[in-house]
Amino acid sequence: MDTTSRQTLGLIDLTPAHAHAHDSDCWWDHRAARWACALPSSASDAGDEPTPPVATTRDAAPAPGVDVRDMLVVHTALLRELRLAAPAVERVAHGDRRQARRVEQHLALLADVLHHHHSGEDELLWPVLRPRLAPPHAALLDVAESQHEGIDHALERVAAARRDWSPEAAKGSGAVLAAALRELHLLLAEHLEFEERHLLPLAAVHLTEAEWHAVGAAGAAGVPRSALPLVVGMFAYEGDPEVLATMLRSAPLVPRVLVPRIAPRVYARRALAVHGTTRP
Predict the structure, then answer these.
(1) Residues 112, 117, 122, 124: what is their CA dihedral angle, to the nearest 10 degrees?
(2) Would you say 133 and 141 are in contact if contact means Cβ atoms under 8 Å apart?
(3) Closest alpha carbon to 246 in 98, 7, 72
(4) Staple 263 to which of 205, 232, 238, 244, CB 3.0 to 4.6 Å?
(5) Backbone angles phi and psi of 29, in degrees to 5
């Protein structure tokens, strides 16, 4: 049963009074960081009126598994910026080298963040997760790894197009770059939807907190310190403040206090320079 189908069913309260053994009708809701379980079919079908969905409650019992919502913050920011990237290139006037450099600088940052994000998964997430999965679930990792390879090739095409475009900001090479960026965005959107639907729930229940946070730490280590306020601002633009605070919890005191205060302004300046608005 897929997530959409499950959401049409009533959900059972999983406080201790209603606790039960999770089965195939249960799934880890990584957005809420808790289990959600469908009512048995006999209960959901009983009566003349369908049972409306009821939010699962875990207030009285801590949810099992790892809170993986920080990955959603990263995904949201990358998808947004790559969706906006092609129009940013197309808005650059023919021969406007100064604006081309501004856009190129932003594209380089996005490529680096995406590269380090996926490298962390390839090196620290999939190899740890795979031995703990049943064969049908392990096969999902094969799909994700294949998608990573496709995205890596798309990033190479974008990099080549960037090198051709940025020195002269010619319209022809700009069109090639915009097309490569749209292809990258489509591949990434497909991959992240697959990862969020199938793999994050598995990571949430099969990894330890330390193993999960090692993946995020590896991605953060790839961000130059000078770019940290911009990247945090990019994440914070649509990110859950509670999750963002958790992401910065292991940072030294000064950056943990100062970066969240300045990050939104830093991102707003970058968005204005690249997208023409502080609210892209």
Answers:
(1) 130
(2) yes
(3) 72
(4) 232
(5) -85, 95
Task: Give the dihedral of Cα atoms 119, 125, 131, 135; nearest 10 deg.
Answer: -80
Tell me which residue of 103, 150, 158, 122 sits closest to 273, measured CA to CA: 103
Residue appearing with tokens 């206090």: 257
How confident is the model at residue 26, as a pLDDT?
Answer: 56
Report the alpha-carbon distance of residue 276 to residue 280 in Å, rounded.
8
Given a contact cutoff of 8 angstroms between Cβ atoms, the answer to whether 150 and 187 are in contact is yes
Phi, psi at 26, each rounded to 5°: -110, 150
Proportion of the chain above pLDDT 70, given as a percent = 77
Confidence band for 37, pLDDT divided at 50, 70 and 90: low
With a cut of 70, say whether residue 44 has pLDDT above it.
Answer: no
H, E, C per residue of 102-123? HHHHHHHHHHHHHHHHHHHHHH
What type of residue sits at position 158?
Answer: V
User: Is the pLDDT confidence value at 234 over 60?
Assistant: yes
pTM as predicted: 0.79
Contact criterion met (CB below 8 Å) for 42 and 84: no
Phi, psi of 47 (to 5 degrees): 85, 170
Q: What Rg, from alpha-carbon coordinates, does the chain have?
A: 21
Strand, coil or helix: 92: coil
Residue 30 pLDDT: 53
